[in-house]
Amino acid sequence: MKKIKGIIAIAAIMMLSAFTTVSNGYKVGDIATDFNLKNVDGTMVSLSDYKDAKGFIVIFTCNTCPYAVAYEDRIIALDKKYASKGYPVIAIMPNNPEIQPGDSMEAMKQRAQKKGFTFPYLMDEGQKIYPQYGATKTPQVYVLQKTSKGNEVKYIGAIDDNYQDAKAVKTKYVENAVDALMSGQPIKETETRAIGCSIKS
Amino acid sequence: MDFYFYDMRILCLLVLVLLMSCKNESQKNGTVVDAHSPVEVRERPLEIYDFEGLKPFLKTTSDTVYVVNFWATWCAPCIKEMPYFETLNARYKNKNVEVLLVSLDFPKKYDSHLRPFIKKNGLQSKVVALDDADFNSWIPQVDPDWSGSIPATLIFNKDKREFYEQSFTYDELETELLKFIK
Predict the structure, then answer these.
(1) Looking at the domain that runs over A25-198, which CATH code has it been given?
(2) A136 in contact with B at a CB cutoff of 8 Å?
(3) pTM for this structure?
(4) Which residues form a coiled coil (chain A) (predicted)?
């Protein structure tokens, strides 16, 4: 009887912890992990490869999420605007392609080519990186700044405040964050929320 | 004069209530809804709200338990769990439970995707569309812990509310609901 009670208690604790681990991941101020992930051009990419970068715009995105697709042109625009200023876009595809075949490496290559991605589009193979960042959905942005301690998380959230219409955007969260970092000003909004597609694991 | 309008409003309200109760009555008598039997397809106009308009659906002072699911036709895990919400609606709607399916489909897809989906699947739970692109302003109002991924579900009554940023099986969903039913 005691044994059964023990098993039930352990099961209950396991269930509880399963539910409470959901919101783990980086907060603003944390140091983000580097990675070594395969790009659509076949090379391996790490943040440490970017010797001259001042920081990064890391974006978890994919082929198959309508919100991610709605933001593709704006992601390209971000890279064009900020890569030369030291903040390149690094796109990571976090979905499991076995569950989401539209996000296979082959499909990623095609999408990158068709849209003319100017930035790396990396497969989070084995899905080990997105859980460390705490990404829950696509698209989701982490703006990092290089510091002596490592790449510090400065902003987490959405690209801007209107997925439907780039022309109707009132606040460009990511641009504001990177602009603030470049001018040494505090970032006004360090975390924002947006609807996105849950990461398929 | 004020009184006149007041009376007229009450009269209108009464007529409305009567009409609605008649409608409910005929539905109850007309069909027995069970998720496993073929369902009668009722065409209802799609209600579309911004977040201000949706807010009243997210709180209650009545004894009803509300199960509010945020979904979209393009969201595969949402579609997978949709039958569970329909079953829950069928089994519990006479037990003071209301299921509300809040679609986050893109407005330009209402005609091509959302309306046909509702019709094709004969959805019996109430469906509304939320058209409010300024996510950051309203997501934390649904729940402070919601990162924004869907599917997401809110269960509440007048005393408590729980938020779930996850997919459900039917059993998991029913277990959560039963916590709200005394």
Answers:
(1) 3.40.30.10
(2) yes
(3) 0.81
(4) none
